[in-house]
Amino acid sequence: MKTELDGDRDFSQQIARTIRDAILAGHLPADGRLPSESDLAAQFGVSRPTVREALKRLAAQNLIRTQRGATGGAFVNRLGFDEAQEHLVTTATLLLSMNRVDFETACESRFALERACLPLACARREPQHLATMRAEIARQGTAGLSDEDFCASDVAFHRALVDAGRNPVLSWHLAGAVEAMQPLMNMITFTARSRSRIVDLHNALADAVAAQDAGAAGAAMDALAGYTLELGGQIRARRAQPAPDGATAG
């Protein structure tokens, strides 16, 4: 592990990056204990507070965990896919909101990614995936369901569809698309959408996955993507209309 530091740059940042690189390279294995703060301070020629700050940076990235007590110290995290998905969703949500990604771009990327998962979902779906999809469709048809709960159910339906592919790497990649982009798209279209039409499209998707018909699933996904883009166009046109006197466009 390289221990020479550039005197013109933040020491704690350089130490954190060096340790991160060692973790990614496999030189520091999962669940392995890092050298003590004193040892790291001696290796890098810095103070313990500087090392402590570097470790805080690594903990914030979920790369290490700290434990107290006689057997405590800093340990390399064994990151699971569930945790990784949470971080990806947070990052994707921040990225989309801060950069104001336009509606069409979000739709294009989200549906392209999810469509790629359909053949696997059709081939590998299990009863629990179909049960979740059916349960969420039933929930979406419930009278009085709030827009927030409808959106949450929409996300849960598509997560079950993605998870039906039984590929944890693909599910991880799609977590940001479904759980970050889907709420963004719902937030824009909820005033114009027809819940019954979305339920019909979800039923078509679930039926195709149950029948293991990838072609029909692709057609249903294309119909859902087309309807979503249609809704976005309606909202944009509505907002472009001149507001009545004394009112603002909503």
Describe it:
The chain has 250 residues and is mostly helical. The chain has two domains: 11-76, Winged helix-like DNA-binding domain superfamily/Winged helix DNA-binding domain (Arc Repressor Mutant, subunit A, Orthogonal Bundle), CATH 1.10.10.10; 81-240, GntR ligand-binding domain-like (Four Helix Bundle (Hemerythrin (Met), subunit A), Up-down Bundle). The protein has helices spanning 11-24, 37-44, 48-60, 81-99, 103-124, 127-140, 147-163, 168-189, 195-210, 214-240, and strands at 64-67, 73-76. The protein has a two-stranded antiparallel ribbon. Strand 1 (64-67) and strand 2 (73-76) form a beta hairpin. The chain is elongated and about 65 Å long. The N and C termini lie far apart (57 Å). The model has no long low-confidence stretch (mean pLDDT 88).
Overview features:
single chain; 250 residues; mainly alpha; Arc Repressor Mutant, subunit A; Four Helix Bundle (Hemerythrin (Met), subunit A); 2 domains; two-stranded antiparallel sheet; 2 strands; 69% helix; elongated
The termini sit apart by: 57 Å
**CATH topology name of the largest domain:** Four Helix Bundle (Hemerythrin (Met), subunit A)
Class from secondary-structure proportions: mainly alpha
Strand content: under 5%
The total of helices stands at 10
Supply the CATH superfamily name of the largest domain.
GntR ligand-binding domain-like
CATH class of the largest domain: Mainly Alpha
The low-pLDDT segments are none
The topology string of helices and strands comes to HHHEEHHHHHHH
Q: What is the second-level CATH architecture of the largest domain?
A: Up-down Bundle
- Global shape: elongated
